[in-house]
Amino acid sequence: MAARWVVPVAVALLALAVGLYLIPSPIDPEPYIFQGPPPLLEGPLAVNTRLQRGRRLFAGQLRGPESFTADQDGNIYTGTVDGKLWRIYQDTLTFITQMGQDIPECGSSMDYEPVCGRPHGVRLDSSGQLIVADSYFGLFRVDPQSGEKTLLLSSKQGCDGIPFGFLNGLELSRNGTIFFTDSSSRWGRRHVRYEVIETNHLGRLLAYEPQTGQVRTLLDSLYMPNGIALSPEEDFIMMSETSIGRIVRYWLKGPQAGTKEILMNNMPGYPDNIRLSDRGTFLVGITTTRFRGRIMPPFLDLIGPYPAVKRFITKLIPFSWYNMLLPKYGLVLELGPDGEVLDSLHDPNGTLTWAVSDVFQHGGQYYLGSTDLPFLPVLEHWS
Ligand SMILES: *[C@@H]1O[C@H](CO)[C@@H](O)[C@H](O)[C@H]1NC(C)=O
Ligand SMILES: *[C@@H]1O[C@H](CO)[C@@H](O)[C@H](O)[C@H]1NC(C)=O
């Protein structure tokens, strides 16, 4: 004999299922199948605690320093989650400017980013001016002393009739050309989790000429293109495609100019910025790790092939929960020019940091970026 509660519970579950089925999913995903399970953590990828040997600067003062650059005088520049640009000199922090409107709510919630701005890639040009990719507004030139901003190219204008949705990586060539990435024409920075789950390849690598104001698309249909780094001879660009854990090389010069090749696929994490070190290697910040599970494959590997499952999950899980579900594991990779892994530094429990967005070598130290953490981790040396 069925218990009295069976029917009401069944009806309630059915109503819930129908309700979930009927509410629209926020995303429109595509299937993506990884080439295989993530690589074993052995050889140069072996687990260690070398990324723990550092200190945290500006705790509570600097949140989400995403990208860095430095001038001849030892000043370091970075942008934070509240839309502000900063100059760092040793242990002092100086405010330069606000990319958007400076309202008290800036930094309190991602919902304010489209108003406050969010600087990502930062570099200095040959005349000592900052070039900044603001994720929402476009490319800017900023005077590092006065804080005066000049909009070079608005996201609204975009390129080839398609506005920019999520400006991200930036690199300057010696002749002044600004290379940059638009991670997605659909999702803005604050919806990066959706972008990663969708695997929709709506990103572009672009080049802007400040002399003429011309902008052109070098590559399109990219999977969340993110950090870029020019080779020392400027004959190629190394670029992360974050949402599928891949690094590609785009040739600027030589017989393969204008073509790309995959250098690293099926990575042990989702790559963010890539920086050239003074030893000619490429340093890659890993924003989220992708390791083999003892029982199950990584979650995104598991749901990757099934758009319906991805749609369903984004209905169920509130957007603000995604960050909490991610492991606090710090990982940075050192790659050779052909994408070979030379070394890796790990912080398996986030003692110093995790979710690394940038690895910037300066004056013998390494400044570790993040999109969200409320401090600036500095590694004393690479050892
Ligand atoms: C500047 O150099 C880059 C390669 O380093 C090249 O792609 C670009 O076309 C050059 N720009 C100009 C204006 O010559
Ligand atoms: C993290 O790992 C280090 C050893 O590398 C250990 O000393 C420390 O207690 C750990 N911290 C936590 C919170 O588990």
TrEMBL record:
GO cellular component: endomembrane system
Keyword Signal appears in the UniProt entry: yes
Signal peptide: none
Single GO term (MF): hydrolase activity
Listed InterPro entries: 6-blade_b-propeller_TolB-like (IPR011042), Strictosidine_synth_cons-reg (IPR018119)
This protein's UniProt keywords: Glycoprotein, Signal
Domain Strictosidine synthase conserved region residues, every copy: 169-255
Protein family (similarity comment): Belongs to the strictosidine synthase family.
Record bears the keyword Signal: yes
Pfam families documented for this protein: SSL_N (PF20067), Str_synth (PF03088)
Record protein name field: Adipocyte plasma membrane-associated protein-like
PANTHER family per record: ADIPOCYTE PLASMA MEMBRANE-ASSOCIATED PROTEIN, STRICTOSIDINE SYNTHASE-RELATED
Domain of life: Eukaryota
